[in-house]
Amino acid sequence: RKEFVDLYLNHVFNESIRRPFEDFQRGFSRGCPAGAWKMLLPEELQLLLQGHTKFDWNLLEKNVTYENYTRSDKTIRNFWAVFHKLPEEKKERFLAFLTGLHRVPGYIGERFTFAIVDPQVRNPDEVYPSANTCSHWLNLPR
User: Which UniProt keywords apply (predicted)?
Assistant: First the structure.
């Protein structure tokens, strides 16, 4: 029985996917030559491809720049007070809203920054917050 189970598991997890995996590996290697990947440890490669799964949100607050705002403005203080009370999932959704990505890319890491910008509109109550995902700007009306 043990031999049967071993052979069956080998078939399911190795032999049955060998051909599709080889096709995938060939395509991946065509776009990303293997020589460049061999210098990375598996954890580094995973971080590079997957991005950071955990992020220091306090560090994010420290790295933010402000345009037409200061860190001490009431709108900014309220924003961060609410942000830090959010559950992790909603913080990740905010990150996706801001950048188009639900994780911080591995190559950016602790240097990730964004800007909070006051769009300076006549009636801020008529304008929703918006984001420029390319520039990592959050347009936050007062």
Answer: Ligase, Repeat, Transferase, Ubl conjugation pathway
